[in-house]
Please model this.
Amino acid sequence: MLLLINNFKKSKKLFKLSKELFHVFPGKIITSIRLIEKIITKYPNLCKFLNIQTIFFFSCKKISFFFSIIKPTTGLIIIFEVFNFSLGIEIHRNNFSKKKNKNIFLIFSNSINNQVEGRLLHNVFNETFPFSEYDFLYCLTKSKLLFLNYFEYDLLKHSYEFRSYIVQVSYLNISRKIRKNNSKNLLIKHESKLDLTHKIQGKNFLIRSSENGPKLSLKLVIVK
Model:
């Protein structure tokens, strides 16, 4: 197992968690302690559900060095702690285009310190919309599973809380922004300028194109 610690001291707790992860996620692990704790807590059986072999966690600050040594392969999950949104998008375009790697998870996660670019997603469980605009960062894989990772600002506590969900989709392209409209629907602003509308039905999502596009559906998958 390959373990790269980003900005954290080596500790007994870290190695204990990494040892547990080695059994859950067979293969090489490049990770940060904070995200390890979150994923172990929320998705203890994630490996069995996704049937993956390798998982990497690392910071965008070290990504150039990473790609100079290791070439991404299929079945790889990569999670960035995005300190620079523009850099993250550029990395995605250069290294994870559909032509190059169809099976790769590219998971963006807003940094707590990145408040300027941290326009945050709503909590999909509560169906509440405290903000008018959100950054919608995700990647679709061939297995049609999607991670949503972000930090949500708590107005009462004046602090950020980590949110992470797994969504199963029938078809969905990369979108950048998500906006609130007059009703309880969500409007996705697509890079190709195609507007899609989220109609929330409990934990299921129905997406209809505002133009003559395909009907899209999302289903929230809770891993227990």
In short: The first strand starts at residue 29 and ends at 30. Helices lie at 12-24, 33-42, 46-50, 63-69, 85-95. Residues 12-179 form one domain.
